[in-house]
Amino acid sequence: MQILDRFRDPVVGRALLVKVTEQAKEVAERLGRRSVFMEVCGTHTVAISKAGLRSLLSEYIDLRSGPGCPVCVTDYGDIDRMVAFARTPGVTLGTFGDMIRVPGSFASLEKEMAAGADVRIFYSPADAVEYARTHPDRHVVFLGVGFETTAPGIALSILQAKAQGVTNFSVLTSHKLVPPAMHAILADPELRLDGFILPGHATAIVGRNAFQFVADQYNLPAVVTGFETTDILDCLHNLLDQLFQGQVRVDNGYSRVVKDEGNVRAQALMEQLFEVADVSWRGFGVIPASGMVIRPEFADFNAEKRFTVNIPEPRIPKGCRCGDLLKGKINPHECRLFGTACTPVNPIGPCMVSSEGACAAYYQYDRRGQ
């Protein structure tokens, strides 16, 4: 599909694409190099690749993928813990579909299913609660994976189970917070960035104000945007204009969904059920105050309090550079395993598994020579 087919109005789309390309060329000439922007959302990564923007603009803009795929940033130890729960007698492990094929140190949930484990895909946490209610002989452990986007739904499911008296339901949390990961990226002296394409989904929950630190503390422009090709080009136009004018702002280009203060009700739900904790990210290690764990008063719904599992020492496959990719230090084709040993059929790391993974997006849409 041609990029112009991605626009509701191809004439407007062509004009916008030409405008951004010319603008990017001017900025590159002024900088003496390409502009480097990071998209902090896996859905943006896929949308950019699918529309062909990454290759079309590559002469003047280097679009880097960051830690925007929640499955991808889930550490080996956390996946090994999930596998251990799947092996626990009497447990039905509930999950969103993206986690099924993610390889841990020794196995994946898919392999555990093949070996007889009761692993089930649920489209919402509420469905998992209902399954637990109608199957009192099983204990349903739901995997709370994701950023601020999915956390309110997980929180609501715990309240739902409590209200209905469903005692055979608990959550294994692996929730991450986006702003602390961005702090970790911006504190890395090896990485040079000129601006951020901020995530539309997570920002809809936490609000534009949560990212004001990018301009205030790090003197970089950032723009919240949606997922249409026009949205992304408008975002790039804004970022390039800020660079050209020497301005630094955190703008909201997705005001039809995102508010400065975010979704206050969703934030209240997260505050009620979770507390902030230091958690480990793939490629980053432990980032302080970057995750959410279930509060002690809801310990009955905390799977780690309900069960004791044995977790082996994590084993990281040699050559996998998923961690460097998530930190924006490389693009997928710079990993020697990409497209050879590591493919969607035989993934080595989660970046090739998830529908929001950068390696999967590059493999399908951005492979060199195609």
List the helices and strands and how they pair.
Layout: H1 10-31, E1 35-39, H2 42-51, H3 53-56, E2 61-65, H4 76-86, E3 91-95, H5 109-114, E4 119-121, H6 125-134, E5 139-146, H7 151-164, E6 169-176, H8 178-186, E7 195-198, H9 200-206, H10 213-218, E8 222-224, H11 229-245, E9 250-252, H12 264-273, E10 274-281, E11 285-294, H13 303-306, H14 322-326, H15 358-366
Parallel strand pairs: 1-2, 1-7, 3-4, 3-5, 5-6, 7-8, 8-9
Antiparallel strand pairs: 6-11, 10-11
Helix pairs in contact: 1-11, 2-15, 6-7, 7-12
What would you note in describing this structure?
- The chain is an alpha/beta fold and 370 residues long.
- The protein has a domain at 76-178 and 262-306: Rossmann fold (3-Layer(aba) Sandwich).
- 39% of the residues lie in helices and 17% in strands.
- The protein is built from 15 helices and eleven strands.
- It has a six-stranded mixed β-sheet, sandwiched between helices. Strands 2-1-7-8-9 form a five-stranded parallel β-sheet.
- Strand 10 (274-281) and strand 11 form a beta hairpin.
- Helix 2 (42-51) runs parallel beside helix 15 and helix 7 (151-164) crosses helix 12.
- The longest helix has 22 residues, at 10-31.
